[in-house]
Structure of FtsX-like permease family protein:
Amino acid sequence: MASKNLEKQLNILDYALSSLWRRRLKSLSVLLVFAAVIFLLASFQMVTQALSDKAAQVLAYTPEITLQKMSAGRQEAIPLAYREQLAGVFGIRRVVPRIWGYYFDEVRLANYTVMGMDFNEMPEGARLDTALASGTMPAPDEQGRVVIGHSIKKALALGGRDTFSLFRPDLSLKAFTISGEFSQETDILTNDLIVMSLADARDLYAIPAGKVTDLCVYVANPKEIGTIAKKISAALPAVRVLTRPQIQKTYQVVFGWRSGFGSICLLTALAAFVILAWDKASGLSPEERREIAILKVLGWETSDILAVRFWESVIVSGLACLVGITAAYIHVVYFAGSIFRPVLMGWSVLRPELHLLPRLAAGDILLILAFTVIPYLAATVIPAWRSATVPADSALGG
């Protein structure tokens, strides 16, 4: 009995394949549209997930707690003397001053990230040389020497030169000499970055002596970040305390908002596909109705006709998923998700050349199938059922 049913399904599958081949141009057009919709949805999901993973990797190296002074809701320079007030907070391993700012290049309309700090005070400062493609990190007492990111050299059009100048707030020029260049492997962190000593950064931004923009707090036990942050807030009520988990949540919210915006844009393509499927579900062509009527005259049952349409839909859906998801994977791996990166990575002119690793969870695949395969199955099986329930003589007569 089981072998007969299997033989019957194989024969129906053979008929479904031959039916698709007879209507190969129509089947191919549906397959391409179907695959394009799946490609867009899968690509967007893969790029969003890959960028979220990259951000999580980057934030793993940020300080556990960052302190910034606020006045009237805006950030201002924080006194270095605050470090002495933190000396009594148990659990703090080290407090490192940092000047972190942005420099807008009006000629090239690009923003550079400028960071000034004493690398010898950083817990992992000795390992920074391993992130360089060439040169060395500047010593704390070396003035005017910087390490630049991969895109800075191109943006400044340095060519073979290793010197450049930036404007101070009073429009006087400050000269810098390049002592090293970051590796492209760290582009997600260093692509638009200029690293210099604390004294040079203070001079460039005209920050008074004894002040910086941030205090980076490193704790002995990461499980006590929340407790230590509360103690710091109590000791320094005028200071904004940012913990690493809070920054990670902020990045998740940002990517979530941008991915939501992109998803709304993709809904237009999805809506077009659903409308196409619904229009197809409203009825079959005269040739398809005549084919169903002839099959019923030859003794086919309604369930057999539905099985043919089901197998046709499964074949088209399976091929479309295979082509769409494969194309999406290639798009993310070899083209770094170039279609959706401008939406998800923001307004920066200097974007890093990322090598994204796509990751598509089972839930994402089920979501894509629910939005694409189910409408298409409904669009093929429902009209076939409606035509199969009409008497054969009526269908042939119509």
